[in-house]
Specification:
Elements: E1 12-16, H1 20-31, E2 35-39, H2 45-52, E3 57-59, E4 73-76, H3 81-93, E5 97-100, E6 113-117, E7 120-124, H4 131-144, H5 148-165, H6 170-180, H7 183-196
C-alpha cells in the first residue's frame, strides 16, 4: 500500500449509491472540497437536501460506465455487491481509482481511520483487514493528540514560513524547525499556556 493524502479541491468525484453509508463518504469528500456527483435511484434525506441546495449533483438512475468520464475517484457504496463490482471493473478500465465499501477485493484504496486536528491528520489503515482495529487505534490517538495540536500546528507553520523567508543556512534552519516541533517544545508551550490561565 502507498500511503497518500489527496488534494481533491475542485476535482470531480463520483459516488454510486445514496444510502447512509454513501452519505458518510460524500460528507468526507465535501470536507475535502471535492466536486461530488451521485448516481442512485433513491437517496436518503441528507443527500437529497445537498442535491436540492446545489452542493452535489445527483442523477436518480442506475450507474452507467460513462458516469466515470473525467472522474478522479469513485466510491461504490450500493447495497448490491454486483453493482459495486461492476463499478470497480469499469473504473479499472478507465484508470479511475475506486473504493467499493466493505469489499477489499474491489478496492484500489481504503478509507483510513483518521485523527483530525486541523492540518494535522493521522491516518490508520489495516489494508481493509480490520476496520475495528483501525477505529480503536484512532480513538487512542485522539486521546494522545488532543485538540491543542491544531493551534500548535498553525504556530509551527507560521514559524516555518518566517524562517524560510530568512536568508539562513538550510541545515541550521532544519535543526531549529526540529527543535520547535519537539516534544519538549510542546510541553513547554502547554505549561506556559496553563500558567496564563
Amino acid at each position: 500500500m502507498f500511503p497518500i493524502f489527496l488534494k481533491l479541491d475542485g476535482r470531480r468525484c463520483l459516488v454510486v449509491g445514496a444510502g447512509n453509508v454513501a452519505e458518510g463518504k460524500i460528507r468526507g469528500l465535501l470536507e475535502a472540497r471535492a466536486s461530488v456527483e451521485v448516481v442512485a435511484h433513491q437517496a436518503v434525506w441528507q443527500i437529497q437536501k445537498w442535491a436540492w441546495e446545489g452542493v452535489i449533483g445527483w442523477k436518480p438512475r442506475a450507474f452507467e460506465p460513462s458516469d466515470l468520464d473525467q472522474v478522479s475517484i469513485v466510491i461504490a457504496a450500493t447495497s448490491i455487491r454486483e453493482v459495486n463490482k461492476q463499478v470497480f471493473e469499469q473504473a479499472r478500465l478507465r484508470n479511475v481509482l475506486c473504493n467499493a465499501v466493505d469489499d477489499p477485493d474491489n478496492c484500489d484504496f481504503y478509507y483510513p481511520a483518521v485523527v483530525n486536528r486541523g492540518d494535522l491528520q493521522i491516518a490508520i489503515s489495516t489494508g481493509g483487514r480490520s476496520p475495528a482495529l483501525a477505529q480503536r487505534l484512532r480513538r487512542e490517538l485522539e486521546e494522545q493528540f488532543g485538540p491543542e495540536y491544531e493551534s500548535w500546528v498553525n504556530e509551527l507553520g507560521k514559524a516555518r514560513e518566517e524562517l524560510t523567508a530568512q536568508n539562513q543556512d538550510p541545515e541550521a534552519r532544519k535543526k531549529l524547525l526540529h527543535e520547535i516541533a519537539s516534544r519538549e517544545a510542546f510541553i513547554n508551550r502547554s505549561s506556559a499556556q496553563r500558567g496564563e490561565n
